[in-house]
């Protein structure tokens, strides 16, 4: 699920279109129709096997988005969980102060789960996978250093080592399996507000994990760092772009062949 404007990115945008990515425009009246159409198609055509990626925050951390998140937190009296930095006072019953994450928007995820767990396909979604990503060198947002500036497209694709500008040195990815029993009750009983609160609580837990990452450079439970390391190439190589272009061309050819066959029938 991606921002609508990304479908116009050359090569990559075309590939995402032919692989049935879902585009959203942050206009819920418009996005709801697109979600209902695309998710219904996924439910009815994939025979139970699919991956659906949802980014509930909907945008990146910046001074503007953080300010909006904090205003929302104060306005809705979101209470701080243990171990998460409050806005004021002691941590007990204090207002939550988003710092390293934003307030998640639940509607897209809620709509998808309502569709995918209804009717004859009610057991189609067995679990959710909660993914948290952190970059090294870590950027301290509390000191007004924002990743969007440090790892800007210019710095990533046109690095300047002499000025310390370039892509992240390492990407940490933490994953947690969220069993069906933890969230299905809210969906089946149509408890939309409780589902929203449940999702917000998980995001406050991410806040704690990222705060710990700032100190340890380890994400999640692997505090000793003795696990197998996964090296992620941040910038795609020329071979990557050519491979993707070939895949897109094959997809276009298959789609054209399918449409022609359908017309003949």
| Number of separate helices | 9
Helix fraction bin: 40-55%
Low-confidence stretches: 83-92, 221-231
- Major sheet: order of its strands? 1-2
Gap between N and C termini: 33 Å
Choose one word for the global shape.
Answer: globular
| Share of residues in strands | 5-15%
Mean pLDDT: 77
Report on the biggest sheet. 2 strands, parallel
Number of separate strands: 4
Topology:
Elements lengths: L1 E2 L8 H7 L4 E2 L3 H18 L17 H13 L31 H10 L10 E10 L10 H4 L2 H5 L12 E10 L4 H5 L3 H25 L21 H27 L1
Parallel strand pairs: 1-2
Antiparallel strand pairs: 3-4
Description:
- This protein is mostly helical.
- Helix content is 43%, strand content 9%.
- The protein has 9 helices and 4 strands; from the N terminus they run E-H-E-H-H-H-E-H-H-E-H-H-H.
- It has helices spanning 12-18, 28-45, 63-75, 107-116, 147-150, 153-157, 184-188, 192-216, 238-264, and strands spanning 2-3, 23-24, 127-136, 170-179.
- The strands form 2 sheets. It has a two-stranded parallel ribbon with strand order 1-2. It has a two-stranded antiparallel ribbon with strand order 3-4.
- Helix 1 packs parallel to helix 9.
- The chain is globular and about 55 Å long.
- It starts with a strand and ends with a helix.
Descriptors:
single chain, 265 residues, mainly alpha, two-stranded parallel sheet, two-stranded antiparallel ribbon, 9 helices, 43% helix
């Amino acid at each position: 699920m991606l921002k609508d404007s990304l479908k116009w990115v050359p090569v990559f945008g075309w590939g995402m279109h032919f692989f049935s990515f879902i585009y959203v425009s942050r206009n819920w009246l418009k996005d709801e129709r697109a979600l209902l159409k695309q998710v219904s198609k996924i439910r009815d055509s994939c025979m139970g096997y699919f991956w659906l990626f949802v980014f509930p925050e909907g945008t990146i951390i910046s001074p503007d988005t953080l300010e909006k998140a904090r205003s929302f937190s104060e306005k809705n009296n979101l209470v701080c969980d243990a171990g998460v930095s409050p806005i004021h006072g002691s941590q007990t019953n204090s207002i939550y102060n988003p710092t390293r994450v934003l307030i998640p928007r639940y509607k897209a995820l809620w709509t998808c789960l309502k569709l995918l767990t209804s009717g004859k396909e009610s057991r189609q979604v067995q679990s959710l996978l909660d993914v948290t990503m952190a970059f090294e060198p870590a950027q301290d947002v509390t000191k007004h250093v924002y990743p969007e500036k440090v790892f800007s497209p210019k710095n990533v694709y046109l690095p300047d080592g002499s000025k310390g500008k370039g892509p992240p040195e390492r990407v940490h990815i933490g994953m947690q399996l969220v069993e069906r029993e933890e969230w299905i009750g809210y969906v089946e009983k149509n408890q939309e507000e409780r589902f929203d609160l449940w999702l917000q609580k998980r995001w406050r837990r991410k806040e704690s994990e990222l705060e710990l990452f700032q100190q340890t450079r380890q994400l999640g439970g692997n505090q000793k760092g003795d696990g197998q390391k996964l090296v992620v190439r941040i910038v795609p190589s020329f071979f990557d772009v050519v491979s993707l272009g070939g895949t897109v061309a094959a997809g276009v050819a298959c789609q054209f062949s399918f449409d022609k066959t359908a017309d003949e029938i």
